[in-house]
């Protein structure tokens, strides 16, 4: 794929949507592409995360392992999905395992690249902060709605 294709893809990612083409170009230029074959694991639950991945093509099964050893299906992710967005900002562990369900390609955005964007462009930092905050608030509201189940 060409750089312009990566820019168009990044513009569709909810966390990055609305950034100028110039800023998306800088990010795309500094990112790395990686191909995976069907059945290959992109990352494993519990490992340290130092980057996020935008899925450029293909699909991934997302799953985690419960304490009793059972496998819990966390869903699937396809083109335009951003996996491990918080890892682009801070040190976190992967919360699930991602395995390609078909030949796939991802674009790796490492933490130093993304943090540089946040530091050099305050408008990017403001936008990303607002979007992550909204995502966390939605998650908290969803968990609060389930509180009765755990009482």
TrEMBL record:
It comes from the Bacteria. SMART domains: cNMP (SM00100). Residues 15-118 form the Cyclic nucleotide-binding domain. It holds the Pfam family cNMP_binding. This is Cyclic nucleotide-binding domain-containing protein.
